[in-house]
Amino acid sequence: MQVQDINLYAALRAAFPAKLDAVAIETDNGLHYSWRDLDRASAMMANLLQSLDLPQGARIAVQVEKSVEAVMLYLATLRAGFVFLPLNTAYQSAEIEYFIGNAEPSVVVCSSKNFGWVSKLAFKAGTKNVFTLDDDRTGSLLDRAAHCSDQHKVVARRADDLAAILYTSGTTGRSKGAMLSHGNLLSNAQVLKTYWGWRQGDVLIHALPIFHVHGLFVALHGALLNGSKMFWMAKFEPKRVLEKMPQATVFMGVPTLYVRLLTEPGLNREAVRNMRLFVAGSAPLLIETFTDWQQRTGHTILERYGMSETTMLTSNPYEAKHGERRGGTVGFPLPGVSLRVQDDSGKNLPVNEIGGIQVKGPNVFKGYWRMPEKTREEFTADGYFKTGDVGKIDERGYVAIVGRSKDLIISGGYNVYPAEIEGYINELPGVAESALVGVPHADFGEVGVAVVVPKPGATVQPDAVLAALKAKLANFKIPKRCVVVAELPRNTMGKVQKNILRETYKSL
Ligand code: MLC
Ligand code: AMP
């Protein structure tokens, strides 16, 4: 597949409709932004960034509430040729300190309520520019950009130049920055545009956060590259989504969003009469959710599979001529993506045999930020990326994910790395060791349960463990339960048997 040497913004901009005054984004508080607004405001912000005399490849780290202005900042970063680094709004100071220390951003943009502590961390790490941006169209970023020209020439970028860094823990250990290029993002957006049949008149309901692949790339690029209007929801509220459905055609969500929509009595065939496509991903979609949705709405959810390092990898077919959408599978490798399943010895496995999923394609990232060793470890000698997901391919070519070799819990579409949480728990007074395991959860799909062993003679209160974690970590990482036990089950090699813990606590 030919990947174009073009700035991603230039490609998105070329897809804007001819009528620049048409509505591009309608927010849930009734604001209307035109295509011209997106172009002009991102030009002003790009001029601001370029006036700061930043080095080539400068990172622009952004931890702000969801807003259209935050999208403009993303577009501005692209068009000015810098590297966008989005951060989950739930991250607290220890987490932000790590990201800023590791990425060494030249610019940090945060909410004004966090300016005190974020700016301190940023200045300590050598960042010279810290701006604020709030979700009510205020902040020093906008004040400064207001003085800049709204004319801007998009900075030329090659396909391999970096566009964004997304932190993810990959298979093990501390968070790693996945480096994604303009070519990675554009090629994936173009493939999805065709594969999912984006067409004139499409309207997207955007209800996902914009600091991860799903909301920032799959959904946003999808609409922009098709010149499609978006209904912009700062927070996912099922009732609000239902209200907008009669005027929309496309919806994308993590499985939890579908589970919550299904609890709405108003979800029925009439409510979705105008909808063309429902896409799910980021976590396994339960077959019950898939079939309940089919029965209630007459629509078959299209499940796809991706990750921060690769953006989208596989998708169930959109068009019936390519096959049916099969629940419990993530469909076929997308055009341009090679996907194979290997065993631990590096042997390719035949159909229906379970092994590690490996991928190659124009969408696969450039490596982990400043971690060449880690990057090498995650690629095979012939250039396939080891996803850490375990799955199989059936005789018709459908890929199914059956597990993960990486120790990862996916809760409501957010990743939780047990090693990180266990590290915090093990430092608490009186704790000898701990294990975090994922157990099934009706709403979030999976949630963490912390199993803690006290030191001899010490007492550990489960609530105190949870409270201590809450003070330090993003809320979605907090285990929903904590149990104190005398010892952890281990195998003959001394390794904690998490499978036994998962089984023991699955009904908690
Ligand atoms: C919130 N909480 C969570 C949680 N979200 N706990 C576990 N997992 C989550 N995902 C906490 C809250 O802090 C709160 O704790 C309690 O759980 C109840 O919260 P809530 O009010 O029900 O949560 P809400 O704000 O409604 O958020 C739920 C959600 C949100 C599902 C809307 O988590 C969400 O937007 N998830 C989408 C994540 C996403 O976009 N992932 C894509 C990654 S990209 P307390 O203690 O305060 O009461 C990727 C690649 C790919 O993976 O393939 O796409
Ligand atoms: P992230 O690191 O946040 O990008 O998360 C990527 C991981 O989410 C993948 O490696 C998978 O484990 C998981 N994932 C994404 N989509 C799906 C899906 N449709 N089904 C199961 N797991 C998925």
Task: Describe this protein's structure.
This protein is of the alpha/beta class and 508 residues long. Among the domains are: 8-16 and 34-183, Rossmann fold (3-Layer(aba) Sandwich); 329-404, Luciferase, Domain 3 (Luciferase, domain 3, Roll); 408-505, GMP Synthetase, Chain A, domain 3. The protein is 29% helix and 24% strand. The chain contains 15 helices and 24 strands. The chain has helices at 8-14, 35-51, 68-79, 93-103, 115-124, 140-145, 182-195, 213-225, 238-244, 255-262, 287-297, 372-378, 418-426, 462-470, 498-505, and strands at 23-27, 32-34, 59-63, 83-86, 107-110, 129-132, 162-168, 176-181, 203-206, 229-232, 250-253, 277-280, 302-307, 311-315, 332-333, 338-342, 355-360, 385-393, 399-404, 409-411, 414-416, 431-441, 445-454, 481-484. The strands form 6 sheets. It has a 9-stranded mixed β-sheet. A 4-stranded parallel β-sheet has the order 4-3-5-6, sandwiched between helices. A 4-stranded antiparallel β-sheet has the order 16-17-18-19, with no helix packed on it. β9, α8 (213-225) and β10 form a beta-alpha-beta unit. α4 (93-103) packs parallel to α5 and α7 packs across α8. Bound molecules: malonyl-coenzyme A and adenosine monophosphate.
In short:
By secondary structure, the protein is of the alpha/beta class.
Features:
508 residues; alpha/beta; Rossmann fold; Luciferase, domain 3; GMP Synthetase, Chain A, domain 3; nine-stranded mixed β-sheet; four-stranded parallel β-sheet; binds malonyl-coenzyme A; binds adenosine monophosphate
